[in-house]
Amino acid sequence: MDHLRLYTKIAYLYYREGLTQQGIADRLEVSRQSVGRILKKAEEEGIVSVSINSPLLRSIDGSEAALERRFGLREAVVVSPLDDSEAAIKAAIGEAAASLVSQRVAEGSTIAVSWSSTVYECARALPDNRALGASVVMLNGSLDRTDIPTGGERIIKAFADSFGGQSFILPAPMIVDSPGIKRSLLSDSRFGSIYEAACRADYCVFGVGEISERSSLYQTGYVSAELLARLKAAGAVGEVCGKFYDAAGRICIPSLDDSTIAVPLESLRQRKLSIALAGGERKVEALLGLLRGGYCSVLVTTEETARALLAAGQGKPHEN
User: How many Cα atoms occupy the beta-carbon half-sphere of 155 within 13 Å?
Assistant: First the structure.
């Protein structure tokens, strides 16, 4: 019983009294390594039982784990907005994404972001990460096509201010008139270097758009009524950075893709983390296509959207 008394004493001092392992070692005149080993054994033998009572546990243990298993995600973050409004959904996702990005980004790395209203909410919620000195680059062209701003410059500035690094924006339209114009723009050393930096970024943060008149691309003038009809006829269900894909995650209308100034969707699979932000009933079909294409390793979404994805999701994500 001597070991039981020692195990109980150390567990009590650590979990109830709040002493550090080194503090316990000094008090009981044992090594810190012995304290750590005993605490582990105390859990294994049932002397200590750790209970997590956070209200977030249900999502972490339920829908988050289920999304990770079903779609091969590295991580899923599921939030509960204050209400069902679009503004509340975007704010909740943005806040959760800001916390996640701040915890995952490594010092001196590069973050690539898209312009998106949900990514903007993430940018607004970012804490002070200036010690990390991370550079920030735009994933896609961001020049406005109408009097409705894309918000690209505000997003880049907010990220750069938070992470204390340089910022690089692609000062070009996202969709140009022909593949030749795209090639010409990217042949310029300044445009080309920023584009290459986006393609090599360690982390990507992007929104996911649906194919409808309510989409950001339609509202900002990048998608006309005629193009919207073409996309629907081609089976498009969603877009990331102006790259349109079908229900299986395959690119729709290759000629349009060749005229889009944005990183290839396939490159998103190669990043340390590719973080997709989207939620709401309108985004379910677009998210399913994205997940089946394997274009994100992390998804931040809502509880309601998670349930819909799990109910509708079939098939496995793209194998690298």
Answer: 28
Nearest-5° angle of CA 168, CA 175, CA 177?
A: 130
Which tokens is 192 given? 């080309």
Give the CA distances from residue 291 to residues 163, 198, 315, in Å, rounded to whole numbers and listed in that order. Answer: 28, 21, 10
DSSP annotation of 131: G
Fill in the DSSP letter of residue 251. Answer: B
For the full predicted model, state whether its pTM sits above 0.90.
no
**What is the per-residue pLDDT across 64-100, written as a single tens digit (0 to 9) for each?**
889 999 999 999 999 988 888 999 999 999 999 999 9
Task: Calculate Rg over the CA atoms of the chain.
Answer: 23
Residue indicated by tokens 């889009």? 260
Quickly tell me which residue has 């243990």 as its tokens: 61
- Distances in Å between the Cα of 226 and the Cα atoms of 135, 169, 218, 257, 276 are 38, 29, 11, 16, 28
What is d(CA 257, CA 81) in angstroms, rounded to the nearest whole number?
34
d(C-alpha 143, C-alpha 152), whole Å: 8
Give, as one character, the DSSP assignment of residue 313.
Answer: -
Which regions of 75-138 does DSSP assign to beta strands (E)? 75-79, 110-113, 135-138
In contact, 309 and 69? CB cutoff 8 Å: no
Q: In this structure, are strands 209-210 and 135-138 parallel, antiparallel, or unpaired?
A: unpaired
Helices (H), the chain: 2-11, 21-28, 32-44, 57-59, 65-71, 86-104, 117-125, 152-163, 179-187, 189-200, 216-219, 225-233, 254-257, 284-293, 303-312
Q: What domains, with CATH codes, occur in the chain?
A: 2-44 (1.10.10.60), 57-312 (3.40.50.1360)
